[in-house]
Amino acid sequence: MISVETSRGISNLVINAILPCLTFNKIVGNLEDKDIKEIGAICLTAIMLFTAGGLGAYALLYITPVPEKWKWGLIFAGLFPNISDLPIAYMQSMTTTNLFSSDQVDKGVAYTCIFLTVQNFMMMNLGMFRIVGLDFREDIKHNSDEEAYVVSKQGEEESQNISDANGEPISNNNTDKLRSVNTQDMPVGEIFKNNNSTIDNSNQSIYCIPQNTDMYKEPLHIYLTNNSVTTTASAPKSMNEISYTKIKRRKRTQSLVSEYSALSRIRSGDIDLTKPLTLTSEVGNVNYGDNLVDEDCEIGIHAKDNNSLYLSAKDTISTIHNIPGNFDGFCTKYHLKWLHYILINFCRPASIGTILGIICAMIPWVKALFVHTDVHVHQAPDGEPVLNFLMDFTSYIANACVPLGLLLLGGTLGRLEINNIPQGFLKTALSMTLIRLTILPIIGVAWANKLYDMHWVDTVIAKFVVILTWSMPNATAQVYFTAFYTPLEGRHLQMDCLSIFFLLEYMVLFITVSFVISYTLKVDLKF
Fold first, then answer.
1. pLDDT for the residue numbered 186
2. Where are the transmembrane segments (predicted)?
3. What's the pLDDT at 425?
4. Per-residue pLDDT at 409
């Protein structure tokens, strides 16, 4: 099975490149201004789906024994289904049958992308992913007692060889000269506050032991010499006027929690959940606009003289906090931070792909630049629209969405672990599975028929997509959101509950979806 880091890299690739290309290609190529009514009906259907699932989960709070620390997790599981990789894969698999034409299948994928856009808007733009964090309020309030940084030595003799600018040795009795700091909210160069320290020994070592162990899994071992700075990964190298070296954070690949957990940074205030997180990952690890160093960081080493070193961070990697732009300042002044939060999240690659796709699809003259339409525009020398090469490019990239999405889904389910089963929770999990995979599909079939009878949707593929979406299990993104809030140490009750729920759902999913789709094709659509 692929490692957690590899899975996260693939997930970021899907979110930042493949999914935006898929969304743009399918929307531009298959939707037009005449479909605006069906797009509106799909948005309304998505809201109804989220509401019905949320109400069902809320009812279970009073009917079944739900653990106190997973009540909001249950609400989130009821709200959001998996309407990304599974329905897209299901729709594209229909091309191998004679039930729908390839154009109908592509249009169905475009409708699925609209469903996904509505869900992303609610989860990220409106910040509803933070519902999961309400189960961790006690953990967030808990203060960590560890020191942020501790300077250690390879022996008592070595520590006496490190002196400050005044020549006074820094020893166990004199370590107050080194201030405890938190790297998450300050430039890297500030780690070493003793800027003019002289190095008497030719090979000393400093261990940096971070407070936030979810980011640094092991101490950074830095060798300081008269004219060089290296890490344990490389041998000492000479330095002229200015040299740079990379310090790599070592991470263990043990579990989803160890990879995604950011609870200690939330506690310390380094992550402000009232502000948008980074836009290029499913679960951001810093706030948007905070240029924190991620995997690698370069530390500038300035040589003062032969025996003195001054360490500072390179300007391009220093942490920037609370530097409001014009719009940010305007929102702060007029108490419109909620508007700033919503608009910034529109800059996510998936949102940009959808917005550009809808704009191009709804304007006939712009759409004609990408695909053949009834609108007359001049063609390229090869007889194709002038921007048709962009459609070819996005189509080529989008083909990787389904296999990678299913690979990530399988990898996520394969990493789920169950350590403890809360008393009576099986009743809750079975009840929620019944609601999600049995009751909601029945409501979905009735709702789709009503939309079709009212002519809010006029195509059978739109009706089929609506029913398929109501039949999906809950969103796998909840695994990452839960791991984001889960502490590294202690009992992981929320992850245990979510794992049980997922395993029960996917054990019966192939039965329920097969029954619903067979009924839809044979009875509703008369195939």
1. 43
2. 39-63, 70-89, 109-132, 342-366, 396-416, 428-448, 460-485, 497-521
3. 92
4. 86
How many whole angstroms separate alpha carbon 59 and alpha carbon 64? 9
Burial class (CB in 10 A: 0-12, 13-18, 19+), 273: middle
How confident is the model over 402-419, as pLDDT tens digits? Answer: 888 888 888 888 888 888
Dig out the tokens for 247 from the structure: 């310090």
Q: Is the distance from CB of 174 to CB of 153 less than 8 angstroms? A: no
Residues 132/478, Cβ–Cβ less than 8 Å: yes
Strand order in the sheet with 242-248: 162-163, 198-199, 308-313, 296-305, 242-248
What are the tokens at 148?
A: 């942020």
Domain ranges of the chain: 4-141+334-524
| Secondary structure element (H or E) that encloses residue 88, with its range | helix 85-93
Q: For residue 104, is pLDDT > 70?
A: yes
Q: Which of 31, 5, 14 is nearest to 370 (CA)?
A: 31
The whole model's pTM is what?
Answer: 0.74
The whole-angstrom separation of Cα 302 and Cα 184 is 23
Q: Cβ–Cβ contacts within 10 Å for residue 138, how many?
A: 8
The distance of Cα 341 from the centroid of its chain, to the nearest Å, equals: 16
Q: Which amino acid is at 1?
A: M
Comparing CA positions, the residue from 111, 47, 107 lying closest to residue 81 is: 47
Q: What is the pLDDT of residues 106-132, one digit of tens each?
A: 999 999 999 999 999 999 999 999 999
Summarize pLDDT for 156-171 with one digit per residue, the tens: 444 444 444 445 554 4
Task: Calculate helix-pair angle for 401-415, 85-93, nearest 10 degrees.
Answer: 130
Query: Tens digits of per-residue pLDDT, 5-16?
Result: 888 888 889 999
> How far is residue 12 from each of residues 112, 287, 293, 415, measured CA to CA in Å?
20, 17, 17, 18
**Cα 426-427-431 angle, rounded to 5 deg:** 115
Structure tokens at 422: 């809360």
- In a 3-state reduction of DSSP, which class is residue 39? helix
Fold adopted by 4-141+334-524: Na+/H+ antiporter like fold (1.20.1530)
478: burial class by Cβ within 10 Å (0-12, 13-18, 19+)? Answer: buried
414 exposure class (CB count in 10 Å sphere: 0-12, 13-18, 19+): exposed
| CA quadruple 388, 391, 397, 402: dihedral sign | negative
**Which residues does 418 contact at the CB level (< 8 Å), separation at least 6?**
496, 499, 500, 503
Mean pLDDT of 493-515: 93
Identify which of 298, 286, 346 has the alpha carbon closest to the alpha carbon of residue 117: 346
Burial of 62 (0-12, 13-18, 19+ CB in 10 A): exposed
